[in-house]
Specification:
This protein is of the alpha+beta class. The protein has two domains: about 170 residues, Helix Hairpins (Orthogonal Bundle), CATH 1.10.287; about 40 residues, no CATH class. Helices cover about 60% and strands about 10% of the residues. The strands form two sheets. Strands 1-4 form a two-stranded antiparallel ribbon. Helix 2 runs antiparallel to helix 4 and helix 4 runs antiparallel to helix 5. The longest helix has about 70 residues. It is rod-shaped. The termini are close together.
């Protein structure tokens, strides 16, 4: 069956579903935290210190404990401490390095998005060209079948030789093999498109559902990772995402 794909929708789905993009987003979030921490470390330090002490003074342990209970000797102190770095070149260098790392990661994300879009478009082109090869191979099979049948009829009436019949049969077999290869390549191209869009599990109707750690055993039963109770049918797996065929419209067979 031939499909007509919505290339824009497939590219958006690929960028949203590919795990590489999620990994880059997590790294970008970590880079942002690192940059903020580096900026904070480069700022002047002002600290307010307050100390309160209850002293236990006495000639023996019992006297000291009694003094602590009576709270006869207490003191406190308060202080303000500041650190203003002179030049601060090392910390400023750390800030610049963290910012450059984030900018580099942003560039990597944009480049990866372009690469994913190109992979999707290439996979769509492979499917389109694969369908054209199937059509050409089928026409070749039809023509070679007619030629083989004609050679058989000619051979039956003495107008051809067995060599010509064998040659026609060989050409027909080659055409049939080419059609089989074209069909296989067409199916492989669909798998490649599912992989490029990040919906391989969804295309195969495979769902991944983690158990709820806060739920009861009755609620957990039958979910992924938890055994179902006896005589209870296992629920069918839900699709994890839209497959490539869902973003495509059949154009004919």
């Amino acid at each position: 069956m031939e499909y007509e794909f919505d290339a824009d929708e497939l590219m958006r789905s690929a960028v949203a579903n590919r795990m590489e993009m999620l990994e880059l987003e997590l790294r970008l979030a970590a880079d942002l935290v690192t940059a903020d921490w580096s900026r904070n470390q480069a700022l002047p330090l002002i600290a307010l210190d307050y100390t309160y002490r209850v002293n236990g003074l006495g000639g023996s342990l019992s006297d000291s404990m009694r003094t602590l209970e009576d709270n006869h000797f207490e003191d406190w102190s308060i202080g303000l401490r500041g650190e203003i770095p002179m030049g601060n070149e090392q910390r400023e260098a750390v800030v610049r390095r963290s910012l450059l790392t984030r900018l580099q990661r942003l560039g990597s994300r944009d480049a990866r998005e372009q690469s994913i879009r190109r992979e999707v478009l290439d996979a769509i082109d492979q499917i389109d060209s694969g369908w054209q090869r199937i059509i050409a191979a089928r026409q070749s099979v039809i023509l070679n079948t007619r030629a083989y049948q004609a050679e058989e009829r000619q051979f039956g009436v003495g107008g051809s030789t067995s060599t010509n019949v064998l040659d026609a049969a060989s050409r027909l077999a080659q055409a049939q093999l080419a059609e089989v290869n074209a069909l296989v390549d067409y199916q492989v191209a669909q798998v490649d498109l599912a992989f490029a869009t990040g919906t391989l599990l969804g295309a195969d109707k495979v769902g991944v559902e983690p158990p709820d750690p806060q739920g009861t055993m009755a609620e957990r039963a039958g979910h992924a990772g938890w055994p179902a109770p006896a005589n209870t049918p296992t629920p069918e797996a839900e699709p994890a995402g839209p497959g490539p065929a869902e973003a495509a419209t059949p154009a004919g067979s």
